[in-house]
Design brief:
Order of helices and strands of chain A: EHEHEEEHHHHHHEEEEEEEEEHHH
Number of helices of chain B: 20
Distance between the termini of chain A: 54 Å
CATH topology of the largest domain in chain B: Aldehyde Oxidoreductase, domain 4
Helix content of chain B: 25-40%
Number of helices of chain A: 11
Structural class of chain B: alpha+beta
Largest interface: A-B, 21 and 24 residues
CATH superfamily of the largest domain in chain B: Aldehyde oxidase/xanthine dehydrogenase, molybdopterin binding domain
Shape of chain B: globular
Radius of gyration of chain B: 27 Å
Strand order of the largest sheet of chain B: 3-5-1-12-9-10-11
Oligomer: heterodimer
Distance between the termini of chain B: 69 Å
Radius of gyration of chain A: 19 Å
Helix content of chain A: 25-40%
Strand content of chain B: 15-25%
Shape of chain A: globular
Strand content of chain A: 15-25%
């Protein structure tokens, strides 16, 4: 519980934050919600020389619909994701995932950008954001760039952010008609627990309202980074949305997953749960897709 | 009991509520003294190693470091909770020659702030010779396993000072490597009774190490004042026990060690023992001349302040055709880790929680505690009861199925009744077991939910969810002989009619300050608002048993009732003179003393006190005391289980209703119906709080809590990875206390708050079996285990077709 001393900055502009971050490189840590950072400082997992608080930088938070896309500022709180009407209506899996993160107190403080930059394999918001094809925007010494979120994670706790780069926002296309999505997670406790497995799925049906046109299955906690079950997704496309097809895709997703055994669960159990929760999530998403036409 | 109670038995608000909700209640970590230093402990990173050299010179040179101590400063200091001629103390405040588990204390530092103390620890160089380590008790008992305590410990034990025989009785059993304690208890003729049994079963059960998880991490503040007194503020459960041990270790007269009052943020058994960090804080204060505070981190609390003993239990039981238990052979092995902790006690207690519940006339019980290189075991809410009751009542459920009997019916055939005498001589002057079982069965709709023995379960299925019910029973003592073997109380009256209770009790959330104040108010005939309490300070308070053997209500409560009665007697003697009536003619009600049926001849308690002071100078101070087991002078034998050890037993029965998800293997406790016999509930709301807390602890230990080790290293020393149930997980609770009156306790009260943990485990395990036909005998009942067992169940039997 001994936090090592550090220098503390509160930049007022994004550029100022980025250059401070660039200047101190790996010796600096970004503070947003602080709900992960503070724990790591107290446990001496991180011993940064400099902490840069970006909460005072304008324009980094908020939920807005712009030109058929949802824009999420990096500092948007998890509680706002959970309770936003736009998100509940159009991106229900994201709102559901947000409701599982930490406690109510944590959800008020924690930010969506922080949850993603922490890059935990079990990160609550990563599977739904990936299932909604989120594009992530970064600002750094070379200006702005963007990537699909699925290319953002490079390992447990690791991202492709370059020195001085700060995640600024996400953009998510508003789902097409006849789209439905769901998020499920399996944990020992009902809340205040890390997922053994978490799954987000989104389905878009053809005009016949039966054939699957688009499918996304994203798995968390069963690989070094949150992952698309790509083979399972391919299996669904062009098929009728039936329980048999879902079960088969769920089996494929389980095979694709790369779980490990650790103090929270075993490899075999996690794989079995990928199958179960993929099937359950698809079954939950389907009626939502059927309603949206 | 014909007089109506006015204060006792009422759910009155807690007397410490105001201080706690306003944040004024002082806990150890709130104690800040001028010039205070901060201490930290250097701990062993190895499970078993010899210390070849410790170099503290760099740490001592660091700016801001004022004191560094190692085993050299604590030579000849040896202590332990178990310190008897047979089992001499095996612990040292700081490691002498060896370290015996990961976390064992090696050195301590005091510095001007925690950061400097931490930095100083990093500068201490310890040269270790790593020794082979052993983690499994059965491995440890093999002749070629590394011997963890290699030298025979010499010297006197504290029990000799307390009157135990000085001669060390030799252990008749052959010496086995790393065995730290052994209990063998036999009565009746088990072999003959097995031969006469209609049905015999043998089963094995295993339980996990679990943690107490008190919200307040352990902390100590020590201040050695130059006049020679050691002032201490400690996270503890009994001030007089800690004072005694600390005075021995520090080689100071007992009265020169003063424990000051602090509130305790939960203990659950984990704050009973004296710990090295407390001794180090005292030594560092003596060395530096400044107050020293040591606060353990959550990780240190998880690994170095005792865990529930991982236990292996083999039970063989023989029953008659009609379900009576005829004979039982129980063998237990506990892993007590690097030091004994309470290993030799818990193996005695396993039998202690067996004998009072079912009437078993033929018994052979063998318990063994074993040193290994994992963290140390110690008392934890129920101290052995959860393990043994899980095993006994799981097996009872299995036997009931074997012989086609309802398990609740089988329990009723075997439970003890009021008036019975146990094999050790304890008498059940109150025992509501029959009522507990029958009322739990009734309120839980047991018969309808359980169905007839052997009935089809598939119709209960709702999607992937199946419900089931299970039942279990348990018991708990109301105090046991341990230093100081008695409690005392002082009640002084004020000239406005109020009273102050002075007690050595420690308020750690259990509500003792409130229930004891209620006893005083009831006895004196005043309201609870007119009672104040001064407690938990060795300089101010008389002796107290401490709050760690569940004797608070019965022993301390009885002492305090006697103190109040003594004050009342003096008060009435004065009043009788003033009111010109016989003492026997006087009544006190609502703070007014009246001649019976003469409302015109009354005076307030305050006026009586005033009159007394004016006349003789006596302000009226009552005192009372109660010895545990009055009338007995012998102590029970840990090795043989002989001798009385408590005045009264509390009892419980619980029906657990669970939902099992057959696709995930996850078990949810939906409803816990608990009936308990705590005699007269002193404060029903506090009793209910204790029961709810116990159910939640039992639920956690049944379903999710487990300390996970890898070669002696705890892998989950955090609340993230050591999972306790949260409020959302806790079940609907039902049930209440059964009618009962314990003659030994004040107003008929006895234990509640510790025993109820124990029966939740088997109740849940039996409910899981009832739901899905899967028997889990290794705790906790994780989703993985249930799912794997369900998969096995699907496989066709080998001899099929």
């Amino acid at each position: 519980m001994t936090i090592y001393p550090f220098e503390y900055f509160e930049p007022k502009e994004l550029e100022e934050a980025s250059s401070a971050f660039f200047e101190h490189g790996s010796e600096a840590a970004i503070l947003a919600g602080g709900t992960d950072l503070l724990n790591m400082l107290k446990a001496n997992i991180l011993k940064p020389k400099v902490v840069i608080n970006i909460k005072g930088v304008p324009g980094l938070s908020g939920i807005e619909e712009i030109d058929g896309e949802l824009q999420l500022g990096t500092l948007t709180s998890i509680h706002d994701l959970e309770t936003s009407k736009i998100i509940q209506e159009n991106f229900p899996a994201l709102s559901e995932a947000a409701s599982f993160l930490g406690s109510i107190q944590i959800r008020f403080l924690a930010t969506v950008g922080g949850n993603i930059c922490r890059a935990a394999p079990s990160a609550e918001t990563a599977p739904p954001l990936m299932a909604y094809d989120a594009q992530v925007y970064m600002y750094g010494p070379n200006g702005e760039r963007s990537l699909p979120l699925k290319e953002f994670f490079s390992g447990p706790g690791q991202t492709v952010l370059a020195e001085g780069e700060i995640l600024t926002k996400f953009k998510l296309p508003i789902p097409a008609l006849r789209s439905g999505s769901a998020y499920l997670r399996h944990s020992i406790r009902q809340l205040m627990d890390l997922a053994i497995v978490n799954v987000a799925v989104s389905l878009t049906l053809d005009e016949d309202s039966e054939t699957i046109k688009e499918a996304r299955i994203v798995l968390g906690a069963v690989a070094p980074t949150p992952m698309h079950a790509s083979a399972a997704e391919k299996e669904l496309i062009g098929k009728p949305a039936t329980l048999e097809i879902f079960e088969k895709a769920a089996q494929t997703a389980a095979q694709e997953s790369k779980p490990i055994s650790d103090v929270r669960s075993t490899q075999d159990y996690r794989r079995a749960m990928v199958q179960l929760f993929t099937r359950r999530a698809l079954e939950k998403a389907l009626p939502r897709a059927a309603q949206k036409n | 009991m014909t007089t109506e109670l006015k204060v006792v038995g009422k759910s009155l608000p807690r007397v410490d509520a105001y201080a706690k909700v306003t944040g004024q209640a002082e806990f150890t970590m709130d104690v800040n003294l001028p010039g205070m230093l901060y201490g930290k402990i250097l701990r062993s990173p190895h499970p078993h190693a010899r210390i070849k050299n410790i170099d503290t010179s760099e740490a001592e040179k660091l700016n801001g470091v004022l004191g560094v101590i190692t085993g050299k400063d604590t030579k000849d200091m040896r202590y332990a909770f178990v310190d008897t001629p047979r089992y001499p103390a095996d612990q040292y405040p700081l490691a002498q020659d060896k370290v015996r588990y990961i976390g064992d204390e090696v050195a301590a530092v005091a510095a001007v702030n925690p950061e400097t103390a931490q930095a100083a620890l990093d500068l201490i160089k310890v040269e270790y010779e790593i020794l082979p380590a052993v983690f499994d008790p059965y491995e440890a008992m093999k002749p070629d396993a590394p011997t963890i305590h290699d030298a025979e410990i010499q010297g006197d034990s504290i029990w000799e000072e307390w009157g135990a025989e000085k001669t060390k009785k030799s252990d008749a059993n052959e010496k086995v490597n790393n065995v730290s304690g052994r209990t063998v208890i036999t009565y009746g003729d088990p072999d003959k009774a097995f031969a006469e049994s209609h049905h015999i079963r043998e089963d094995r059960f295993e339980t996990a190490a679990t943690a107490h998880c008190a919200l307040e991490p352990h902390a100590a503040v020590a201040h050695y004042d130059p006049a020679g007194q050691m002032h201490l503020w400690l996270s503890g459960m009994g001030i007089y026990y800690k004072r005694y041990v600390l005075s021995k270790v520090l080689e100071m007269p007992t009265s020169q060690v003063r424990l000051h009052k602090v509130y305790i943020g939960g203990a659950f058994g984990g704050k009973m023992d004296v710990y090295p960090y407390e001794i180090c804080a005292a030594l560092l204060s003596k060395k530096t001349g400044r107050p020293v505070k040591i606060e353990l981190t959550r990780g240190e609390v998880f690994t170095t302040t005792r865990l529930r003993f991982p236990t292996y239990i083999d039970i063989k039981t023989g029953v008659s055709k009609d379900g009576k238990i005829l004979s039982q052979h129980i063998r237990t092995v506990v892993n007590n880790g690097g030091y004994r902790g309470t290993g030799p006690v818990v193996i005695y207690l396993f039998h202690g929680w067996t004998a009072p519940v079912y009437r078993v006339k033929n018994m052979r019980y063998e318990g063994i505690s074993v040193w290994t290189n994992i963290p140390v075991g110690g008392p934890q809410r129920g101290h052995g009861a959860p393990q043994i009751r899980f095993a006994i009542d799981s097996q009872l459920d299995m036997i009931a199925e074997d012989i086609g009997m309802d398990p609740a019916e089988m329990m009723l055939k075997n439970v003890r009744k009021i008036g019975e005498t146990l094999p050790n001589g304890d008498v059940l002057n109150s025992c509501g077991l029959i009522d507990c079982v029958t009322q739990a069965v009734e309120l839980s709709d047991w018969k309808e939910k359980r169905g007839a023995p052997g009935s089809d379960r598939t119709e209960r299925k709702n999607g992937s969810i199946v419900r089931g019910v299970g039942i279990s029973t348990t018991t708990m003592i109301s105090g046991a002989p341990y230093y100081p073997f008695a409690s005392a109380g002082i009640v002084k009256l004020h000239d406005d009619g109020a009273a102050t209770l002075i007690s050595g009790v420690v308020e750690m959330g259990q509500g003792a300050e409130t229930t004891l104040s209620q006893i005083v108010a009831e006895e004196l005939g005043i309201s609870l608002d007119d009672v104040r309490i001064v407690a938990g300070d060795t300089e101010q308070s008389p002796i107290d048993m401490g709050s760690f053997l569940s004797g608070g209500a019965t022993v301390t409560g009885a002492a305090i009732r006697l103190a109040a009665a003594d004050a009342k007697r003096q008060l009435l003697e004065v009043a009788s003179e003033r009111l010109d009536a016989m003492v026997e003619e006087l009544d006190i009600s609502d703070g007014i003393v009246c001649v019976r049926d003469r409302p015109d001849r009354c005076m307030s308690i305050g006026d009586v006190v005033n009159y007394s002071v004016k006349k003789t100078g006596d302000p009226i101070i009552g005192h009372g005391s109660r010895k545990i087991l009055s009338g007995t002078s012998r102590y029970p034998s840990l090795a043989k289980g002989t001798g009385r050890w408590t005045d009264a037993y509390g009892f419980n029965a619980q029906v657990a209703e669970v939902e099992v998800d057959t696709e995930t293997g996850q078990v949810k406790l939906v409803r816990a119906t608990t009936f308990h016999d705590c005699g007269t509930p002193l404060n029903p709301q506090i009793v209910a709080g204790q029961v709810h807390g116990c159910v939640s602890t039992g639920q956690g230990q049944a379903l999710m809590e487990e300390i996970v080790y890898d070669d002696g290293r705890v892998l989950n020393p955090t609340f993230q990875d050591y999972r306790l149930p949260i409020t959302l997980d806790t079940p609907e609770t039902a049930g209440t206390e059964v009618e009962s009156f314990e003659p030994a306790g004040p107003f008929g009260a006895k234990e509640v708050g510790e025993g109820v943990v124990a029966q939740t485990l088997a109740a849940i395990a039996n409910a899981v079996y009832d739901a899905v036909g899967v028997r889990i005998t290794t705790l906790p009942i994780t989703p993985q285990k249930v799912l794997a067992a369900l998969e096995n169940q699907k496989k066709p039997p080998k001899n099929n077709k």
